[in-house]
Amino acid sequence: MPPPPRPPEEDNPDHAHMLANVWMNANKLAEMVKTQGLVYKKGKFSAIEDAQLCAAIETFRVNKGMTEQDITGLIFSKDHGRGDAFWQEITSALHLRPIAAVYHHVRRLWHPLRGQGRWVPAEDENLRDAVAQLGQQWEKISERVGRSAGDCRDRWRNHLEGQEVRRSGHWTKEEEEELTKIVTEVTVLQGKDMDNDIFWGAVSQRMGGRRGRQQCRIKWTDSLSTQIKNEGAKPRWSQLDAYILVHKVDSLKVNDDSEIDWKKLPDEHWNIWSAHTLQRRWLTMKRSIKGYEDMTHAELMDILRTKKAQTPPPQTASRSKSQKQPRSAETIADSDLEEEDGSTPRASSNSSHVA
């Protein structure tokens, strides 16, 4: 029998050194979590982390007497071992990020083909042809299509793959039941949490590709999962939920909301909403403040704390159809939200607790 996992040690210097120096894939990291109590950070990189990476890269460049072109060559070198010292040094500038995650993030961030906007039909056709000829060799496809490897991969997986059978629009009751059955089989029946560690590409495949990975993820996190937690009834976002969210975000004492790990916001008394929903609701509240684009996180929190200073009573009346409905998940750009699997731990559905 394997030894029990050690308790998490967020400030373990040996673990920090390991994360910055040892290249480990997701399976190895998961094994280290179970056997060694390894703590590391996952999910979207914050704006502060990006600034720290930029500063670390510039410091490395200056200390080594390198040009900007030299650094670009180092970042995109095909000789993985050539830049080990570089990747180790800039990873050490962050806290609890694995070196492999930093490697892939920096290569996306610095990619010369990054951020080219909406795909046009001609590009989609080029991508289809490239995948047909090269398979899913995204770096080679990137050179042919003129988009970054990550953009090509995401465009293919989320929009083009299986397009001939892909459905859009309203989900049927049969589709909802099928998705619930699949997610239950790959999580609950295997002793896993229904909101974590779901590989949506595999879920989409099990649905015959009729719904894409993003469609499955959004349908589950924003609708089906919350209904299951609410004993089958469709829950409604209330003023009490908004109050709890504001005060939970305030309690984190972060400098920017890009630092928030949305999966950690729920607790055993307030868990009905997915991390994806909480992040979307936060963006809606933030954007409701005039001039929010020019405000710091602290200034926004001052305003929202004032608006949500009093605990509202629990909402029991049903919402009128004439009331304004919040935007759906599809209407908010993915770049605004945490990357895939931003979901929440499962527990009871009582919405009366404030951290």
UniProtKB/TrEMBL annotation:
Coiled-coil regions, chain positions: none
Predominant location category: nucleus
Biased composition (Polar residues): 316-328, 345-355
Spans through the membrane: none
GO cellular component: nucleus
GO molecular function, one term: DNA-binding transcription factor activity
Classification lineage: Eukaryota, Fungi, Dikarya, Basidiomycota, Agaricomycotina
Localization per Swiss-Prot or TrEMBL: Nucleus
Keywords: DNA-binding, Nucleus
Keyword Manganese: no
Residue intervals of the Myb-like domain: 111-160, 163-224
Gene3D superfamilies registered for this protein in UniProt: Homeodomain-like
InterPro entries named in the record: DMTF1_DNA-bind_reg, Homeodomain-like_sf, Myb_dom, SANT/Myb
Organism of origin: Phanerochaete carnosa (strain HHB-10118-sp) (White-rot fungus)
Acidic residues: compositionally biased ranges: 333-342
Name of the protein: Uncharacterized protein
Segments of this protein annotated with the region Disordered: 308-355
Keyword DNA-binding recorded: yes
Domain HTH myb-type: 117-164
